[in-house]
Every structure is written in structure tokens, then in C-alpha cells.
Amino acid sequence: MQNILVIAYSQSGQLTEILQNFCKPFTDSTIEWVHVYPETPFPFPWNGPAFFNAMPETVLEKPVPIQPLKFERDHYDLIIFGYQPWFLSPSLPASAILQDESFRKLMKDTNIVSILGCRNMWINSQEAVKKQIASAGGKLIGNVPLIDKTSNLISVITILHWMLTGQKTRKWGIFPKPGVSDQDIENVAHFGKLLQEKIQANDVQNFQTELISKGGVNIPISILFIESRAKKLFLIWANLIMKKTANGGNRNFWINFFKYYLLFALFIVSPIVLTIYHIFVRPFSGGHIKRELAYYRGTQLR
Q: What residue intervals traverse the membrane (predicted)?
């Protein structure tokens, strides 16, 4: 019998539903659920100022205070870590979990699977998670990212509708439903069953390879291109805002400046740059793209 720890922060409830379905096949295991709560809760639905105000600390991975974590055991056979990316980085509560000393002790020499529920960009945040797990001595054996599979710009509109209203519904009755699809949330149980089978066969090191072969790690090439550049820009903005407001500067001014920059970049600059990329760059970058996709689908650090 396996002793499994499932730990996560779920703001909207979608991630909790994903984790519950993933864990359904583990009927013969003891599962301990730890739901993480920030000392100052983040609002849901979000309001615009609160959402954008979280950007600098999120990108710089500065943990927020969370309520003390309590674990029933000193060791687990498997840890399932669920999280969401914010601004191409682990969410503030996720960073707090990964930097919590009691949790870091549990990660040492323990098999870990990360599970994400997100819009469509997760590779930069997962790189940060990989580094935190490795620095704690954990063994990341799998990563299961569930994404919104609609187009990038459409999903921006639908996710904003969900975040700002709290309603996971079709905006105006014409846009797709936001977030991870109901079908993908239900079907994640198949990946849980695959992990269970690998555990029983003492073959967990091949879990990610088989997960990939079954289509469990989806990275659109356009998203790969955007993420390879966007995180650097986010870091520049985060450091700029922290510097400009360190001595009492007007944080709201700089946060609003970033907000309008981001919207301009998403809806104006991004489509133009992607068109140029697909016409002039992508046809000559097949080998590089293949290597990048193989790396980001895996669990190892460079």
C-alpha cells in the first residue's frame, strides 16, 4: 500500500477537481490531502488591480505567508503537487509551498508528480518547479499539464471572463467555455491509472515517457515560441516595478503601465510577431524546435 500526499492551492476549485480525478485509480493507497491557504486570501473572482498587483512578486518567486502546513507522516511514497502558473511563474501560494522548510524535508528522496491546471503557458513555471524540487533533493518522475486548448487570443478573453466574474461559462454565449475542458478533467483519471500501474510494476521512471506517448503533454509550437521570450520581459518588468517602488514610488502607476503593455503585447504585437515567426523562422528551425519540445515535455533539468 502506498502512502500518498496530495498538496495544492486551488483558487477557483478547478485544480482540486483535476487532482480528485487523477487520484481516483489509487483505491488501494492511503491518500492525505493538504489544501493550502494563504494567510491573506486572494480574491476569486479576481478584480483587475489585485490580479496585476500580484505580478512582480510572482515573477520573482517571493512566497506569500501561508497557514502552517501540517502533515500526518514524516515520509511519503509519493507526493502529488498541484499548482497553477501565474505570469509564467508558479503562483504565489505554489512558491510558498515549494519554499516551506517542512515540505522541503518531505520532498527529499521522494518521488514527486506535478499536476497543473492552466490556460496554455506552463513551461517557464515548470522550470522553476523543477529547480525547487531538485534543490530539495526530490525526484520529479512526472508532470501532467492540463491546458485550455482553444487559441491563444480566444483563451485570453475567456479566462478574463472567468477570473473577473467567477463564472466558468461561455461569454455572451458565443465564446468557448474557459479553462481546462470538462472532458480533459474527467480523462485525467487515465493518467492516474497509468501512474498506478507504473508504481505497481516498479517502473515509475518510465511514467513520463509513456505519458508523453499517450498525448499527455501538449505544447503548441506558438506557445513554445512566446514563452521562450516572454519570461525575460516579465522579469524586466518585475524588477523595474520593485526598483521604482522600493522607496515609496507610485506602485499603482507602474502596475497600470505594465497592464496596458501586456494587453498591447497580447493583442497587437503577438499576432504580428507570430506571423513573422511562422513564415520566416519556423521552417528553418525544425531541429531546434524538436529538441526544445523534447526537453520541456520531460522532467529533467538542463
A: 260-281
Cis amide leading into 45 (omega within 30): yes
Report d(CA 236, CA 59) in Å as an integer: 10
User: Which residues, 6+ apart, have CB-to-CB distance to 23 below 8 Å?
Assistant: 4, 6, 31, 80, 192
pLDDT digit string, tens, across residues 215-239: 999 999 999 999 999 999 999 999 9
Identify whether residues 268 and 253 lie together within a single domain: yes
d(CA 174, CA 158): 10
| Strand ranges (E), the chain | 3-8, 30-35, 78-83, 85-86, 89-90, 111-118, 139-147
Q: Give yes or no for a contact between 121 and 109, defined as CB atoms under 8 angstroms apart.
A: no
Domains in the chain, number: 2
**Residue 180 contacts residue 15 (beta carbons within 8 Å):** no
**Domain identity same for 181 and 261:** no
Whether residue 4 contacts residue 26, with contact meaning beta carbons closer than 8 Å, is answered with: yes
* pTM for the model: 0.96
The dihedral through the CA atoms of 238, 241, 247, 253 has a sign that is: negative
Q: Is the peptide bond before 178 cis (omega within 30 degrees of 0)?
A: no
Question: Does 213 lie in the same domain as 238?
Answer: no
Instruction: Report yes or no on 158 lying in a domain.
Output: no
DSSP 253: H
d(CA 265, CA 230): 10
Q: For residue range 125-182, what is the model confidence (pLDDT) as tens digits? A: 999 999 999 999 999 999 999 999 999 999 999 999 999 999 999 999 999 999 999 9
79 in Cβ contact with 110 (< 8 Å): yes
Q: Which residue segment(s) compose the domain that 231 sits in?
A: 221-294
Task: Give me 87's grid cell.
Answer: 505570469
Sheet holding 30-35, edge to edge: 30-35, 3-8, 78-83, 111-118, 139-147
Question: How far is 77 from 59, CA to CA, in rounded Å?
Answer: 31
